[in-house]
Amino acid sequence: MIASLHLDTSGRDPRNLSGSLRELRSPLAGGVHSVRIQADGGADIAPVLEAVFSIDDPEYPGVSIVDLGLLEHVEVRNGIVGIGLIPTFSGCPALAMIADDVEAAVLAVDGIDEVSVSWLRSPAWSPERLSVRGKEALKIEFTVAVQIGTSTPECPLCGGPTVEKSMFGPSRCRSVHRCEACTETVEVMRG
Amino acid sequence: MARTWTDMDEFEGFLNDGGIVEVDDDMPDVYRTAVFTFIEMHANSEYMGGLTERDWIPKTPGLRHKMSVLAKTQDEIGHGHLLYMVAADMGIKTRTEMLEDLMAGKSRFHNVFHYKAETWGDQVAIAFLVDAAALASQQAVFKNCSYGPYRRILKRIISEEGFHMRLGEDRMMRIAQGTDTQKEIFQGALDRWFWPALQLFGPDSKPNDVLLRWHIKSERNEVLRDKWVQKFVPMLQSYGFSVPAPDLAYDEDTKKWDVGPIDWEPLKKTLAQGGPDSARRIGEAKANWEGTSWAREALEGSAT
Lengths: 191, 304
Prior knowledge:
heterodimer; A: alpha/beta; GMP Synthetase, Chain A, domain 3; 4 helices; 23% helix; B: mainly alpha; 2 strands; 2% strand
């Protein structure tokens, strides 16, 4: 499944849009949500999107917040950028840090004078929003599984079925499972 | 699938070639015990650290910091949980036995959790100095760790501790740019925490340290400690704070800071559960453990 992009270009196509779309498809591939992009004519949104993609989750270095499904909308008008993100859970302590990182990265883009990053109250984040690339990075780099709905998460090491040992891992968005096949202790990203 | 080795030479050859030991391998008992003891101490430290962090949830100034303290508490307890599971899988002690030994003062946890955090400034100093020291130690273990289950969990713990470091820097920047009173509070905290943080690395590694030999640690204690000194002494000074080391000196030739002789007595006391706040900390952990026994019993009942 490829997440859809809603584009409102208010007239002419923004420059470099096709390049940006190609880049945006990768972190959205496999996710179920859509990202709304609005830009005025002539706006070069590629560097803005790249700047957002370049920000990693503070707890998963190397995994972009876009791959985790946090990006909801981007708006570029007259050098002013508005970015809407959604948190994996509302009490997440990384919110201020992520917003600061995104703001600094986008402000560094040529021609951008103002950036406002907001944390949206809806829609709620769910693990379905993770991209294929995000899931692979969590699995391979961090030995973290992902639980979609009430499905049984697979062990990132051996692919065996896991059982939940505790709903609460080191963060609200993770539980602790054990692999029934290889006994590995597995953290699972959950909704 | 379990692997066996005919003797210690063959096992050490396997480790020296970068081999990774897994839980069902027939590892030598001395290796099993050394790795288990190391992970148990790490688990205990995460758990005791989580309880310390928890003490500050109601007292933390401002929502921004309060959220970070809440999250750190959950992180530390979560890390402890994962580490206790990995340690228990080694078949030496169950998780309950490890926790009971901890409450009975029979097993160790890091020196820094044997001291009392007096003010918010102490929490800032801990997040800034102690978390950095703990992170540096864990990174050095992760780099070359020969025990697979521990290595994989360390990867995640390190990423999260890196996040704590940033929270610590954020706290430090705020207090360093604050009022004179705030700066005084932080200086007082530094005076209390500089030495315990430095001693977290431990005394110089012994030449025959099996943790180095078996690729659990990848770096000698004194090397890690020195890196920490070279980073934090100039950083604290640049923010206008003084380092509480009377013999502090800068060597123009080597371009390095020397903190002078280190008194290891305080560290020895903490390792024997005789630190300034050891009795209260362990007592509170024990009361907490006993006070929540009903929840464990209920869970065990519902799990059958």
